[in-house]
Amino acid sequence: MIHSDWHIHTTASYDAKLPLPTLIDAAQKQGLRAFGMTDHANYNDRSFLGNIAESQRLYEQYRVPELKFGVEFTPIAKPMYDYIAKHGTREGYVPVPQDKPYDIELALTLDEMKALGMSYSVGAAHWRVDVADARTVDNSAYAQIKEWFRQQMWLACDPRVTILGHPWSCNQTWYDDFSMIPRMMHDELGAALKENRKYIECNAGMLISPKLTDFFKRQYADFLRYMFEKGIPITYGSDCHGPEYPDNRAQCEEYLSYAGFRDGDFSEL
Ligand SMILES: [Zn+2]
Ligand SMILES: [Zn+2]
Fold first, then answer.
1. Does 172 have pLDDT greater than 80?
2. Closest-approaching ligand to the CA atom of 125
3. Helices 20-29 and 46-62, interaxial angle, to 10°?
4. Which residues, by Cβ under 5 Å, contact ligand 1, an ion?
């Protein structure tokens, strides 16, 4: 069912340990038709731009035809983005509280992506960027769901984003029962993804993590199927951080077939 992987971190990501030659060797042995490296560009500061330069260097050094060069974006609060653009670093940034959510930016412009030779991106929400400090304000499940929805809607509409990465992931709040997220949000997000011709990601972590229940994994696979049936193409992302590149496809496919997915449903870019 799954023949390609569009979300993989190499040693160029601050939190990953997968050497690119190890990835290439393992992915070829697994018979993947295509696989893409997507190192983190969390901020527009020196360290993250350095990681991206290293990612590009590795790609140029080891490239094979099946390997694609992408990046993983996460929304940045616009005031922080502007501060970094001015000072080159996050050091010394103090968020000024405001009465509405901060606007959002991404670490690279479309022109910078082109200059780096990137052919696509994964855009994903990872943490709240709407408030100065989530620990001091309403941090209820609903406040978090609302913020994830806002970021994901924004990503679905931004021309720099190709794939919406790990939808509704990276937070413990709704991990017990995925139906906590209103269906209306799936419908609105689905409409935006479809209109802007984005892909939605099936992130392996959501279907294989030992921290998640079997019940949740079934709900999540059903959610992916619900979005797919709206006409949104789906891609697979192992989100592998190394040091090895294991093959987790069979475990994911079990949940995916249960939700109605068949061979041919998963897209290549
Ligand atoms: Zn991510
Ligand atoms: Zn990732």
1. no
2. 1
3. 50
4. 124
